[in-house]
Structures are given as structure tokens and as C-alpha cells.
Design the sequence.
């Protein structure tokens, strides 16, 4: 089972909008050296919505090759077309990914039955561990706890990223699925609490800039050290908040640029972080010791 701090890795880009492969290699090594437990390639934070299919598949393969088995790689392969999600998931399987992350189909607003049939089709078609991803704030599609429990019975489904930030909702899911699948937080600010409630880890934006701290936070929570986990989380709460002053991944990409790790590249329709927020993000990083 994949557990701990799982970074939702950005996809670094050059000024000409091309993927910056050298920076991607540096990022991968940076995370492994700082204790990140697993990497999600081409999730929401990796700009999956603006990479074309060829780029999407190339990034997954590149990350798998660079990681070279040192930690698990989870490939973002969700789509609002079931056929496309199957195609991306099969490509990830062939590339050697350890698992796939499948966001609920966005924009077309499927029914709960449609969500079940969507995941059943992917599960039946591709033999690779699959993690559900519920983030209604971005997709306008909410996978209800009862539907999660139903999908959890399917072969190949091993987990869910519950990104509502609602701990009561997360507890409902945990109670319904038991030990059938893992439950991961998709909300950095409340991640340690979800782990204390029985969750298995955190798929994290903040881990892009504070990998060691997020790895420690997840371990403290997993070990049941609630007070220590709370103290650490409180000390980096300003970073959690700064990563969402504009739509993800705008702030985190600028933060990594401010840290000197990557260039400022980001692909339209997303734009570089507005100047009015840059001082706030910089100060959060400085307080956390990520920049001087």
C-alpha cells in the first residue's frame, strides 16, 4: 500500500511553453532526497488539463524512468471521457507506473451510476492499481460516500483521494470502506487530522515546496502523535494557505521559481502569480525556511 506524503508534482515549463525536462529531473531527485514517499505525475497540480495527450504520456514515462523504482509513481490518468481515461491508464501501465489517479469526470456532471460505470469500465480494461479522486470544487462532480463504497468493491481500485477538506465527509468514507481501500487527504491544511482518523496519507501541493516537513507531518500523524503533528501543521499553515491565493498550481509554481528550483513557465489559460500575491507567498516561504 502507498502511504505517507505523496507530492502532486508540478510540471516545470520553459518560457516557450515546452516541458522543462532538466528541471523535472531536479525536482524528482529533490523529493526523493527529502523524504517524499511517492510522486503523482500529471495530476491537477501537474497541469494535466493543458498538456496534450502525447505530452501527458511522455511526462509519466519520464518520471517513471527518472524515479527508477526508488519510490512509487502514481500517474494522473483521469478524464471526462471514459475512453480517454482508459487510454491514458493503459499507457501509464505500459510505462511502468505503480498506480493511477483518476479524477471524477469534470464538466459533464455524470450521475452516481455513471461514476460507478465509468470506474468499472476502467477497472475492467486496465490491470493497474487505481486511486479515485474526488474534488467537487474543481470538477462540479461529487462522488458520494455510498458510491465510493460501491466502487471500492471493484478489482484494481485501491484508494481514494478525498479532496473536499471536510473531515466529517472523510470519516464517512473511511467508515464505509474500512480496510478495502486506502483513504488519502487532498487538503493539506487538514491532512494530518484525516490521517489520525484512519487515513493513509496525503496527496499534497505543499509538499512541492516543503517535502521534508510534509513527510514528517504525515509520519507523526500515522504514528498517532497528534500534538506534535498539530504543532508542525500550525507552523506551516501559512504555506498551506499561500499555495491557494490563486488557482492551483499558479502559486506553487511561482513559489518554486522564487526558491530557484524551476523557471516561471506556466501554460495558458493559467498565468504567472499576480504581483499583489508574490510578497505574501515569498514571506510564507521565508518564514518556513524555504527561501532567505
Sequence:
Amino acid at each position: 500500500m502507498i502511504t505517507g506524503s505523496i507530492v502532486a508534482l508540478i510540471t516545470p515549463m520553459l518560457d516557450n511553453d515546452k516541458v522543462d525536462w532538466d528541471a523535472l529531473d531536479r525536482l524528482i531527485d529533490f523529493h526523493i532526497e527529502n523524504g517524499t514517499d511517492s510522486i503523482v505525475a500529471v495530476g491537477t497540480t501537474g497541469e494535466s488539463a493543458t498538456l496534450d495527450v502525447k505530452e501527458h504520456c511522455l511526462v509519466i514515462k519520464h518520471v517513471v524512468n527518472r524515479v527508477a523504482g526508488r519510490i512509487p509513481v502514481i500517474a494522473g490518468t483521469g478524464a471526462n471521457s471514459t475512453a480517454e481515461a482508459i487510454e491514458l491508464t493503459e499507457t501509464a501501465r505500459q510505462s511502468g507506473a505503480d498506480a493511477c489517479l483518476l479524477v471524477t469526470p469534470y464538466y459533464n456532471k455524470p450521475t452516481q451510476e455513471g461514476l460507478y460505470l465509468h470506474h468499472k469500465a476502467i477497472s475492467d480494461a486496465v490491470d493497474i492499481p487505481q486511486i479515485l479522486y474526488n474534488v467537487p470544487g474543481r470538477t462540479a462532480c461529487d462522488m458520494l460516500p455510498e458510491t465510493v463504497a460501491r466502487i471500492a468493491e471493484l478489482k484494481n481500485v485501491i484508494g481514494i483521494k478525498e479532496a473536499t477538506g471536510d473531515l466529517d465527509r472523510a470519516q464517512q468514507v473511511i467508515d464505509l470502506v474500512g480496510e478495502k481501500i486506502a483513504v488519502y487527504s487532498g487538503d493539506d491544511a487538514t491532512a494530518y487530522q484525516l490521517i489520525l482518523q484512519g487515513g493513509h496519507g496525503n496527496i499534497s501541493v505543499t509538499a512541492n515546496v516543503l517535502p521534508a516537513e510534509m513527510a514528517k507531518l504525515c509520519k507523526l500523524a500515522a504514528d498517532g502523535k497528534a500534538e506534535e503533528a498539530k504543532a508542525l501543521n500550525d507552523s506551516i499553515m501559512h504555506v498551506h494557505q499561500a499555495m491557494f491565493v490563486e488557482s492551483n498550481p499558479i502559486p506553487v509554481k511561482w513559489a518554486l521559481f522564487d526558491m530557484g528550483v524551476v523557471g516561471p513557465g506556466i501554460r495558458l489559460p493559467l498565468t504567472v502569480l499576480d504581483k499583489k500575491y508574490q510578497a505574501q507567498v515569498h514571506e510564507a516561504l521565508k518564514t518556513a525556511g524555504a527561501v532567505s
In short: The longest helix spans residues 53-67. The chain has one domain: 4-223. Strands lie at 4-8, 38-41, 73-76, 99-103, 130-134, 157-162, 182-185, 201-204. The first strand starts at residue 4 and ends at 8.
